[in-house]
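User: My instructor asked us to take a sequence, write out its structure as tokens, and then describe one feature of it. I'm not sure where to start. Here is the sequence I was given:
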Amino acid sequence: MIHIVPRDRKPAMIAALAGGWVADAASLGLHWLYDSSRIMEVGGQSPEFLPPKADYFKGGFGYFAHEGKQSGDLSHYGAATGVLTHCLLAGEGTLDIRDYQRRFRAFFGPGGQWQGYIDNPTRLTLANLHSIEQNAIEQAQTSITTELTDKQKRILVQKVLPYTRRLSGDQLAEPVTRAISLTYQEPEIQRAGVHLAETIDRQLLPESGADDMQLPAISKLPPLVAAYCGSDTLMEVIEAAVRVTNHNDEAVAWARCATRLLDHLFRGESMSAALDAAVPEAPDSKDINKARLGAGLDAPGAGDTFGRTCYLHEAMPVIFHILSHAQSYTEAVRANIHCGGDSCGRAWIIGPAMAAIHGVGGERGIPLSWLALVTGAPTILADIESLVNGTWAPKEQTREQSSCPAH
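Assistant: Let's start with the prediction itself. The structure tokens for your sequence are:
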């Protein structure tokens, strides 16, 4: 879908996506410290890229969640954005919900790559994905007409699950048959296994998210907005993606608001025009409009007025306040950190929005030195460029498990 975007907007979109990663990493050291005065004591006027330390949270209210992380590391918000980015890269700019669910479960679930804090929507989404799969297995087993023993049914489930977790539709029959044939040569049992796999596949639900209206609903959306920028299907795709982790109508409404903002900025409109376009999508526009008023930037005051926690009805007015008044990327990121609370979550809208306007370098753009401080920056930036420019890597051939498909 990325080809919809005019070529001259692609550098701004690359900068915008980079702005999310940088703002997240910059905020991690003081993330979830709610006391703005304590933040000023610890970080002063330059609170960015501090190493996460429990000592910072002494003498101020907060929750220290990032033990073991280093300066430049990303929060769980960044990790989730990476999952969605890799899904889009694998789909050559198109979102496949089932692939997104698989990647999310594989990354954050048992045995996955993520080491760090797990938020409530992620925890419940993982539980829901497991429950959805178990319900699908039960329904599929009841539909089998072949005479099978309980032992055979259990073995067939073990055989097919590795494939239903990474393949769909017509992709299932051949590898499932081959896996079953290692244990059962009878054609009728093999056919029953294929029926089991295909039925499980049909029963898996796309809405796997928690009934939750917090920032994880919108924080991972910038690469998806970039991929579908200007498309008639943008809002439909956004809702589908949100409901993977946040199956909640208010969360979807706030996601539409954030999407409208980023979509207009990515296409080259002014900050004021983009904010105007986003306001009607908000489930409650009163606080959003109030946050835009005032003579100057006062992020701690906005936090006092609207709230600093992860809930979207608190975070979005703070985001709108900062975007309405900050004059540069650096000023916006520092204001977001000084506000306190869920600064990493808010960073994923503030960073891309400001970078879409001001780009990289210069007095108002992302500082080049900040780009270099992000852990894994070369890979992250290469992925961003691939996504926006549509330079896809050759698709990997599906690798079948060769040793023991029953696991």
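For the description part of your assignment, you could build on this observation: Residues 121-203 form one domain. Try explaining in your own words what that tells you about the chain.
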